[in-house]
Amino acid sequence: MSEQKKNFLDSRIYPVLFMIIVTVIFVGMLATFYQFTRERVNLYQKEQLNITILQLFDLPTERLESNFQKFIQAKEKKNLKYYQAVKDSVILGYCFPISGKGLWGRIDALIALTPDLSKIIELEIIEQNETPGLGGRITESWFKKQFENKLIISNEVVQAFELISEGESNNDRQIQQITGATASSKAIVDMIYNNVKLIKEFGI
Amino acid sequence: MTKKEIFKVSAFTENSVWKQILGICSALAVTNLLINSLVMGLGVIFTLALSGFTISLIRDLIPRRIRMMVQTLIIASYVIIVDLFLKAYFPEISKSLGPYVGLIITNCIIMGRAEAFAGKNSPLDSLVDGIGAGVGYTLVLLLIAFIRELFGFGSLFGIKVLGDWWQNWSIMVMAPSAFFMLAILIWIINSKSKKVG
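Output (structure tokens, whole complex):
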């Protein structure tokens, strides 16, 4: 190694320059890869969302695009975005994107309500970061199915569900929580309560 | 050492999990399902191999004082690539692994191999060493996951193998069982290897 080169490698500025160059190279590489996958990820997410909305109202999901346009109308009121499902000019219900705070992070979900907003048609979890195998089980169908046909607004008051142990028989005010995942179960119940309250205040 | 020997040493003789007790965190977290463990293992193999290769390639240029910063940056970049790849091509698995893919960055095995091997050896040797260490890690994960999924869910790779009579052990789904499994595994392997030595 020449004397000059050795001096440069020992200089104070070298580590700084080196770090900058390495950072630029690797972040550049990541940005390129991100651009490359972004379209695919977005497309997939949009498609999944549309499929889920159709499924919430038991509408057919084949020929996704045409069916979605036929049955679903995206609506917006102030900041509240929602979807209206119509079949044979009868309103089947409304679907709202809702979110709440889970144990580790945000939980995103879709909730479908009857046209008068009083009953839950179905609940679907879109995104969650709960513990796999424990809180992650909020996406299991037995758990989500419990919310179906449950009265959420009665006498103009938003109802809160009561949590009971997994396996116990529940009445229409109760939800069986997941064993080992009390916080995640409660997060879902709270999320529904808070969001439906907001939806009711907005009034559609 | 030949490439074969390097692989053998890093995968078995000096296995990161049971000999060096590294990477325990993720071994506890994702091993309740086989498919999650497999994908996690593949992600770690990819990151270990390529980060080892890259770090070794520029090992003479990395200033000693900031070598950890550089290593972390390189490792993190490969982990993000794994994460993006899963999101784009295997969205279902990406969903069920949740934050654990991103947490590969904090897996001590990767930093350990970068420090102990890639910083001193040729790029190709480091690549082989990375694959070896990754395979060793994946084997442990799959072994633990096999037992946990079988007893915890009555299934293997999501396919039911135990009938309706089977009562799932919820302890197997939770993290503590991984502690027990890992401890038993280390116990068995240590007692075997002592007899040889």
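Chain B has one domain: 3-196.
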